[in-house]
Write a structure and sequence with these properties.
Pfam families: Mur_ligase, Mur_ligase_C, Mur_ligase_M. The protein has 15 helices and 23 strands. By secondary structure, the chain is α/β, with parallel strands linked by helices.
Amino acid sequence: MHIHILGICGTFMGGIALLARALGHRVTGSDANVYPPMSDQLAAAGIALHEGYDAVQLDPTPDLVVVGNAMRRGQPVVEALLDRGLSYCSGPEWLRNFVLQGRWVLAVSGTHGKTTTASMLAWILDQAGLAPGFLIGGVPQDFGVSTRLGEGRHFVVEADEYDTAFFDKRSKFVHYGPKTLIINNLEFDHADIFKDLGQIQHQFHHLVRTVPGSGLIIHPARDPAITAVLTQGCWTPQTTFGPGGDWQAEPLTADGARFRMLHQGRAVGTVGWGLLGEHNMRNALAVLAGAAHVGIEPEVVCQALSRFQGVKRRLELRGEVSGIRVFDDFAHHPTAIAVTLAALRQRVGERRLIAVLEPRSNTMRSGIHNATLADALSTADRVYFYAPPDLGWDAAQVLARLGERLRVHVSIAALVEQLVADSRPGDQILIMSNGGFGGIHQRLLDALRALDAN
């Protein structure tokens, strides 16, 4: 079958392309900008890419067109698709019908931590010898790829709440049919899709309705937003984690690098790993519960987690120059920004912590999070904020409570220049963005090395 994928360079749709290729289909695709790293993965798999959304890419006619959620009415390829009556579906539909049918699906959902938690879960199943498939919105260091078809019965999917396609405004996760469902947390986000938290909760209840009675829903013991979803109706057994939950963590170090895990008050194992923070201990509890549901012993889980290398762009150390360490993180919501800074602070102690933030998400750029953004950054000793000319709100005013710690720049080049001039040995620089941030990580490291060479 010839499958053509619209919007192929996103992590999810690129993953769909790689899964389709693994199933033996001929796969082609297009995107507005064909860019790495996904373009490199696709090219290595022999998938031909077309740049742009013109109609000519539908000649010769593919057997099936898979439509990404970035596609809109009015785009030439979309109009041609509809006018010609071609066979099409969404990415989540294709995943459900061609990959997930008949498999034990473990879905990881929630506002924060999905990528890391799904990566942990896939790694545990792999180390337990279950040969799982997975589709994750990032690249686990242990696998080096974001997706794998897998030979086993189990499939781990990062289940996000973004809409499915221009013709299906339900969240993507309603298509997956999980038997094991983790809901990590639930806050308002994606202001470009949802007007308030209630709309997100409505979609999560659709998800809850799809979990069978033989399945399991895993969630925090004390999350009012999740509790409100479940009280709308739940037909599946539940288990809880975190304070007051069935599964709990007892930190053995202040930074969360070593901790004991307990089930209903009984110690079941100890983890020592390279990850940091209370939030990652909670993620570990969620995957411990998920692994137990498929029959994996806690001892195996703890051993696998102790070997877990993490995920690219999640507190990833990108380099060190003259004692200055540069980290990359995907944080782009005030809660994620705060917990990431707190985790790094626990590790580095009194050393100077410098936060560099790009407000790239639609929600952040809309100003929805302005009331909590300064507090989220308050752990940092210095804050460098990139304010592009089209931001739409006054960053200096919104973050005024940070006082002399704040540096606002409308140019990435100027930001890097001042950051290099201000940096000193021992500084820990944390760069946060859910995009490429103009290649700032390498630009900063190169500038520090050039200064060091002189």
